[in-house]
């Protein structure tokens, strides 16, 4: 495999991730505490207040997927009684434990000191940490984030979350870390978060340009990396987003598109897509290539909103620290109801002048997937642009059929092309 | 007094009627009546009843319905109940249903609530998120407000106030219903040959499609009739069935387990009428009472968080002991995240408690019973052999 | 003359259509896809060109007043003889290949005996081939593999028995060789074979020789080839010569029935619902998801499970009086459910009727996903030949979408290739 060509911001991110893994695996030497938690509803700012290192099992599963380890981990978990039907992030995680629990830096993962079960937008999170708790027997802090079933958050929901933060999460993290909670420290961290969030939103907005200087899906997963994981609220994240913004500004000035893994600048953009659903990680590059080879650029995506919908205006707010954490959790993409998701996607198709909505339906993830065919129909109806549907999985290599996916993508692109020609002929 | 056969026949008619003629007739019998459908696992039916509505249990389309449009909305890796529920809706079979409640079970049913809003904008539909924090000061306060919101939604639907008095009256009826349901379950645990699995199942399912007072009378009748009837006792083993709380197994499967030599003496089929395990106090604020009952006296099931690790599976083991079951069949719908993710944990606890168990998957329209009969039969034989 | 060719590489069969620049279909060809798309493409193309020659003969003979009213007969005679020549040529190849494959330890000391048996078998095969291609003879298949195979089995067995040699030994040679022969690109010199066929025939050579030779003299220039179908990416075609099967099916259906708005294609591996505009341009499409349940292949499994031929399923299902409900379109579970039903004493025809309905229900869901059915509705693909499936489809379309004109062309298997050929014309002529 040839080395992926990386931009400076990507290299910085790589370094940040490596440092975090080192912080996790060296906890016994450093005496720092480690928490596990999830990307949606990630309370990194709180963890920072207690000096707790943030370990995100979803990110570990992604790392293992990209490094082609997840397949054997999943099989290991299935051998131990897990169903072939359920989420492969969970199975990749459980299987990894069964195979030595080795972190990407080659050192064993230490046991977590606390499981911060931020139960936001995904049912499986609850079972996942019940399973980990069974293994580690460590304190587990449940933060129940109610689902926005009626399309909006209520005061009751917000109060409930704030109360849980006050009565369950903060005391639990104090006990785990031995550090007293300092709300002013939290305010300070939240200020950093908001700064980085501003820059991220600017980056994602650039997909509205033609040609798009970003790829909001394949490139997007790099753009959201620091903010969605262990770095939101840190000065490094602020630096990262400043750097990213400069890179993208330079591409805009040069009239260039995003950089592909081959190192080429993707300028010849024939199709503009909005993508719904997480990517496949085991064949990430191959998958990406199927798009840029055909001239398709992703101008907006929902996956880049799973860890917060900053583009809709939300910012972490130092003046209302706990309330803004509650609002943050409530507003994550998968915690929004289906009609809202349709609104958001239809708006993206229109505002980003896309040719249509492509859904990458993920077998593992019912939170995303259940109802996506209706989402597609609705977005088609509202925008008048045809949608397309492909199926893959997060980290199960058995569920990525390259020929099948390529066939559908090509059919879709050719249909768009043919319709355009038909339209121009008629005109 | 009706015989068990007569009672079961009436329930079976209700169960099989995918046009819901009885519920339609109930609605037509008086002007202004409303029907509110609800899905598994738990909804406080007291509130629907207190609002003067008929709570109608919707547990999918079973194996009696062809699904065309429902399949158009779901990938192959999603369970069957949302497909057949959509099919019921799209084909007009639920056109008399004025409101729909989608309680928290999993992400599929959760998302279905939003699909319902898009597909049937004229139906009042509500996603009902019960708390996963069981502290009265935290989860309780939240839940009371959610109950209030649900009550107000129902009041808006019926255009009349739902008084505390009315809720208390409904609680009384549902307390009685739960008491009778528990009695039927206890009777079956004592005399499983007198209350076959499929009969008790139909009795419970039928009850979720009729007025609670009527069901109470029916349960009492059934108990009296079943006690009086003499039926042959077979050399079956006694088992509990878990994992079937949402999408229901087809009736044939329920029968097959018994035919394979297993008396089912405990189960979690259509759990809603056993979800609350104790009487709900009639005194004080009824919403507080409903909330406390949920927090303190409700079953352990896969869609509820278990706050303490050591308590995981405890409920199942206690129930197995109480019903004197000799083993557990963990039977879950294919692609059921809650049950399948829970399965390794629950089965491990059962193993630690020395309770034999097997597991298999089904769909509400499973057609092949032979493998089920074989597995259940082998399980029964092995229990006999080792006990 | 300029020929525009569309090739549809399906998972089971590969089809080709040849068109002239006026978008008139000149010829069609089909072959099994094997595991070698390259050869399959060449074979199907050659078959379509053979068919094209026949069309040209027909045109040419139309100018001969003496044969008026007998052209069909003459052409079928010519084709039959051509096929025979072709068959014998392939048989020679097979014999040569078999001979080369008689080696290795399992033949040690028996090479000579095996070669003798093979020589005898092929002698009889050649002899028998005359009856196979005799006037009025019915052949089970047009694929060499099927024709040679079934004869080889019974002739081989007899010859082996007489020679006191285990049939296994010879069968092993055959199995190995047929794959090689089948995967070899087709031999050329189609014109020469037609001449030989002409000479061989009992036809009034004097009358037809000239028009046939004239038609043969017309060079068939492959002006533009468009590839489509599942195997298209494996072809050494430049990208601009490749179209997705969705576009080709949409356009192909439009060419057959210009009033088409909705197309359903049930192929071996997938089912497609396509909406096209009045010009045949695809507006929307949906395919089955990752799960291939309810595709043509499902019927194949069922046929295997019931130990029947694929083409026998439909007629048997038509004899059903009481349809059994089959719930699983999952190919894995269908077998189990089938055995369960049989064990319960259900009749085979009733179960089959249920299975056909199950497939069509699945297709109905895909149509629903693709935006429903609009007038006119065109049904294509291998399953469109199955009368039991068609009956269920008609019923369900009526129930769900009312009175809609349903088009089913007996040559609907060529829909994708037809669309491809049309694209080929458009690429050059427009």
TrEMBL record, chain A:
<comment type="similarity">
    <text>Belongs to the FldB/FldC dehydratase alpha/beta subunit family.</text>
</comment>
<dbReference type="Pfam" id="PF06050">
    <property type="entry name" value="HGD-D"/>
</dbReference>
<dbReference type="InterPro" id="IPR011955">
    <property type="entry name" value="Benzoyl_CoA_Rdtase_B"/>
</dbReference>
<keyword id="KW-0560">Oxidoreductase</keyword>
<protein>
    <submittedName>
        <fullName>Benzoyl-CoA reductase subunit B</fullName>
        <ecNumber>1.3.7.8</ecNumber>
    </submittedName>
</protein>
<dbReference type="GO" id="GO:0018522">
    <property type="term" value="F:benzoyl-CoA reductase activity"/>
</dbReference>
<dbReference type="InterPro" id="IPR010327">
    <property type="entry name" value="FldB/FldC_alpha/beta"/>
</dbReference>
From TrEMBL, chain B:
<dbReference type="InterPro" id="IPR011958">
    <property type="entry name" value="Benzoyl_CoA_Rdtase_C"/>
</dbReference>
<dbReference type="GO" id="GO:0051536">
    <property type="term" value="F:iron-sulfur cluster binding"/>
</dbReference>
<dbReference type="GO" id="GO:0018522">
    <property type="term" value="F:benzoyl-CoA reductase activity"/>
</dbReference>
<dbReference type="InterPro" id="IPR010327">
    <property type="entry name" value="FldB/FldC_alpha/beta"/>
</dbReference>
<keyword id="KW-0408">Iron</keyword>
<keyword id="KW-0411">Iron-sulfur</keyword>
<comment type="similarity">
    <text>Belongs to the FldB/FldC dehydratase alpha/beta subunit family.</text>
</comment>
<protein>
    <submittedName>
        <fullName>Benzoyl-CoA reductase subunit C</fullName>
        <ecNumber>1.3.7.8</ecNumber>
    </submittedName>
</protein>
<dbReference type="Pfam" id="PF06050">
    <property type="entry name" value="HGD-D"/>
</dbReference>
<keyword id="KW-0560">Oxidoreductase</keyword>
<dbReference type="GO" id="GO:0046872">
    <property type="term" value="F:metal ion binding"/>
</dbReference>
<keyword id="KW-0479">Metal-binding</keyword>
Automatic annotation (TrEMBL), chain C:
<dbReference type="GO" id="GO:0046872">
    <property type="term" value="F:metal ion binding"/>
</dbReference>
<dbReference type="InterPro" id="IPR008275">
    <property type="entry name" value="CoA_E_activase_dom"/>
</dbReference>
<dbReference type="GO" id="GO:0018522">
    <property type="term" value="F:benzoyl-CoA reductase activity"/>
</dbReference>
<dbReference type="InterPro" id="IPR043129">
    <property type="entry name" value="ATPase_NBD"/>
</dbReference>
<dbReference type="InterPro" id="IPR051805">
    <property type="entry name" value="Dehydratase_Activator_Redct"/>
</dbReference>
<keyword id="KW-0408">Iron</keyword>
<dbReference type="InterPro" id="IPR011954">
    <property type="entry name" value="Benzoyl_CoA_Rdtase_A"/>
</dbReference>
<keyword id="KW-0411">Iron-sulfur</keyword>
<keyword id="KW-0479">Metal-binding</keyword>
<dbReference type="Pfam" id="PF01869">
    <property type="entry name" value="BcrAD_BadFG"/>
</dbReference>
<protein>
    <submittedName>
        <fullName>Benzoyl-CoA reductase subunit A</fullName>
        <ecNumber>1.3.7.8</ecNumber>
    </submittedName>
</protein>
<dbReference type="InterPro" id="IPR002731">
    <property type="entry name" value="ATPase_BadF"/>
</dbReference>
<keyword id="KW-0560">Oxidoreductase</keyword>
<feature type="domain" description="ATPase BadF/BadG/BcrA/BcrD type">
    <location>
        <begin position="5"/>
        <end position="424"/>
    </location>
</feature>
<dbReference type="GO" id="GO:0051536">
    <property type="term" value="F:iron-sulfur cluster binding"/>
</dbReference>
């Amino acid at each position: 495999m040839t080395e992926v060509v990386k931009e400076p911001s990507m290299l910085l991110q790589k370094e940040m991730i490596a440092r975090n893994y080192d912080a996790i695996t060296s906890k016994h030497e450093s005496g720092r505490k480690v928490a596990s938690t999830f990307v949606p509803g990630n309370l990194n700012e709180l963890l920072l207040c207690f000096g707790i290192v943030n370990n995100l099992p979803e990110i570990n599963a992604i790392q293992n997927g990209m490094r082609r380890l997840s397949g054997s981990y999943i099989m290991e978990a299935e051998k131990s009684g897990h169903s072939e039907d359920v989420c492969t992030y969970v199975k990749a995680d459980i299987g990894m434990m069964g195979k030595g629990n080795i972190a990407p830096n080659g050192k064993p993962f230490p046991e977590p000191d606390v499981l911060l079960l931020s139960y936001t937008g995904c049912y499986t999170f609850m079972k996942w940490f019940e399973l980990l708790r069974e293994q580690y027997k460590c304190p587990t802090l449940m933060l129940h984030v109610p689902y926005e079933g009626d399309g909006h958050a209520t005061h009751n929901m917000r109060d409930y979350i704030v109360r849980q933060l006050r009565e369950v999460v903060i005391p639990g993290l104090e006990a785990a870390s031995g550090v007293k909670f300092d709300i002013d420290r939290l305010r300070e961290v939240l200020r950093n978060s908001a700064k980085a969030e501003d820059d991220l939103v600017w980056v994602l907005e650039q997909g509205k340009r033609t040609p798009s200087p970003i790829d909001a899906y394949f490139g997007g997963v790099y753009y959201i990396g620091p903010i969605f994981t262990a770095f939101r609220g840190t000065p490094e994240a602020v630096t990262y987003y400043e750097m990213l913004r400069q890179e993208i500004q330079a591409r805009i000035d040069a009239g260039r598109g995003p950089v592909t893994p081959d190192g080429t600048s993707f300028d010849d953009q024939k199709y503009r897509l909005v993508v719904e659903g997480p990517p496949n990680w085991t064949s990430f590059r191959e998958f990406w290539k199927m798009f840029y080879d055909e001239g398709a650029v992703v101008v907006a995506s929902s996956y880049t909103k799973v860890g917060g919908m900053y583009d809709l205006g939300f910012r972490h707010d130092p003046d209302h620290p706990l309330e803004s954490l509650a609002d943050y959790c409530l507003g994550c993409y998968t915690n929004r109801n289906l009609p809202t998701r349709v609104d958001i996607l239809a708006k993206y198709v229109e505002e980003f002048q896309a040719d249509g909505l492509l859904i990458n339906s993920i077998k593992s993830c019912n939170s995303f997937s259940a109802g996506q065919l209706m989402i597609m129909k609705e977005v088609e109806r509202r925008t008048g642009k045809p949608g397309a549907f492909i199926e893959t999985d997060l980290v199960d290599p058995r569920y990525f059929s390259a020929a099948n996916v390529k066939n559908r993508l090509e059919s879709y692109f050719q249909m768009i092309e043919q319709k355009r020609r038909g339209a121009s002929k008629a005109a | 007094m009706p015989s068990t056969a007569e009672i079961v026949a009436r329930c079976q008619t209700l169960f099989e009627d995918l046009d819901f003629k009885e519920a339609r007739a109930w609605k037509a019998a008086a002007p202004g009546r409303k029907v509110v459908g609800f899905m598994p696992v738990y909804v406080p039916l007291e509130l629907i009843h207190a609002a003067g509505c008929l709570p109608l249990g919707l547990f999918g389309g079973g194996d009696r319905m062809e699904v065309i449009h429902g399949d158009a909305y779901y990938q192959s890796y999603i369970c069957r109940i949302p497909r057949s529920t959509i099919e019921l809706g799209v084909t007009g079979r639920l056109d008399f249903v004025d409101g729909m409640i989608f309680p928290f079970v999993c992400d599929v049913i959760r998302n279905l609530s939003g699909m319902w809003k898009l597909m049937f904008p004229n139906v009042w539909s509500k996603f009902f998120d019960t708390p996963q924090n069981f502290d009265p000061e935290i989860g309780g306060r939240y839940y009371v407000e959610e109950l209030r919101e649900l009550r107000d939604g129902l009041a808006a639907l019926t255009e009349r106030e739902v008084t505390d008095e009315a809720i208390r009256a409904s609680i009384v009826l549902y307390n009685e219903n739960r008491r009778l349901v528990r009695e039927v379950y206890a009777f079956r645990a004592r005399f499983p040959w007198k209350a076959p699995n499929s009969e008790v199942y139909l009795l419970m399912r039928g009850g979720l499609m009729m007025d609670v007072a009527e069901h109470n009378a029916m349960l009492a009748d059934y108990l009296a009739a079943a006690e009086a009837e003499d039926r042959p006792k077979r050399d079956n083993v006694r088992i509990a069935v878990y994992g079937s709380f949402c999408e229901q197994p087809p009736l044939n499967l329920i029968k097959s387990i018994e035919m394979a030599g297993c008396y089912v003496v405990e189960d979690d089929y259509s759990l809603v009428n056993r979800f609350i395990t104790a009487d709900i106090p009639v005194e004080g604020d009824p919403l507080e009472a409903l909330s406390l009952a949920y927090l303190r006296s409700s079953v352990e099931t896969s869609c509820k968080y278990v706050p303490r690790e050591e308590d995981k599976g405890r409920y199942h083991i206690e129930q197995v002991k109480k019903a004197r079951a000799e083993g557990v069949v963990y039977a879950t719908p294919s692609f059921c995240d809650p049950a399948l993710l829970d399965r390794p944990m629950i089965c491990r606890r059962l193993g630690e408690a020395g309770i034999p168990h097997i597991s298999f998957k089904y769909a509400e329209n499973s057609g092949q019973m032979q493998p089920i009969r074989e597995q259940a039969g082998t399980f029964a034989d092995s229990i006999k052999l080792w006990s | 003359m300029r020929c525009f060719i569309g090739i549809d590489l399906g998972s089971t069969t590969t089809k080709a259509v040849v068109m002239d620049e006026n978008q008139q279909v000149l010829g069609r060809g089909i072959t099994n896809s094997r595991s070698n798309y390259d050869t399959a493409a060449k074979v199907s193309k050659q078959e379509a060109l053979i068919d094209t020659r026949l069309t040209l003969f027909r045109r040419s003979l139309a100018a001969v007043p003496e044969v008026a009213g007998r052209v069909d007969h003459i052409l079928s005679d010519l084709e039959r003889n051509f096929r025979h020549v072709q068959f014998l040529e392939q048989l020679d190849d097979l014999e040569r290949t078999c001979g080369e494959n008689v080696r290795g330890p399992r033949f040690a000391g028996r090479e000579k005996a095996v070669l003798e048996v093979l020589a005898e078998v092929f002698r009889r095969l050649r002899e028998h081939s005359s009856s196979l291609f005799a006037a009025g003879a019915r052949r089970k298949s047009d694929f060499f593999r099927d024709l040679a195979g079934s004869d080889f089995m019974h002739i081989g067995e007899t010859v082996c028995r007489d020679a006191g040699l285990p049939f296994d030994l010879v069968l092993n040679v055959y199995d190995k060789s047929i794959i090689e022969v089948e995967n070899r690109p087709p031999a050329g010199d189609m014109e020469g074979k037609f001449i030989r066929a002409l000479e061989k025939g009992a036809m009034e050579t004097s009358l037809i020789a000239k028009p046939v030779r004239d038609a043969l003299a017309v060079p068939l220039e492959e002006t533009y080839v468009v590839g489509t179908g599942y195997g298209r990416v494996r072809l050494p075609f430049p990208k601009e010569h490749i179209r997705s099967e969705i576009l080709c099916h949409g356009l192909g259906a439009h060419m057959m029935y210009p009033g088409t708005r909705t197309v359903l294609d049930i192929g071996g591996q997938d089912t497609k619902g396509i909406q096209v505009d009045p010009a045949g341009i695809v507006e929307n499409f949906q395919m089955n998801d990752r799960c291939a349940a309810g595709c043509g292949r499902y019927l194949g499994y069922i046929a295997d499970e019931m130990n029947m031929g694929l083409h026998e399923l439909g007629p048997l299902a038509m004899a059903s009086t009481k349809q059994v409900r089959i719930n699983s379109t999952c190919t894995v579970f269908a077998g189990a459910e089938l055995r369960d039903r049989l064990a319960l004493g259900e009749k085979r025809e009733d179960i089959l009727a249920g299975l056909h309905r199950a497939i069509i229900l699945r297709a109905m869901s895909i149509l629903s996903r693709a935006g429903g059915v609009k007038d006119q509705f065109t049904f294509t693909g291998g399953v469109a030949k199955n009368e039991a499936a068609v009956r269920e489809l008609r019923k369900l379309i009526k129930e769900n979408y009312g009175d809609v004109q349903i088009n089913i062309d007996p040559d609907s298997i060529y829909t994708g290739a037809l669309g491809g050929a049309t694209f080929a014309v458009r690429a050059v002529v427009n």
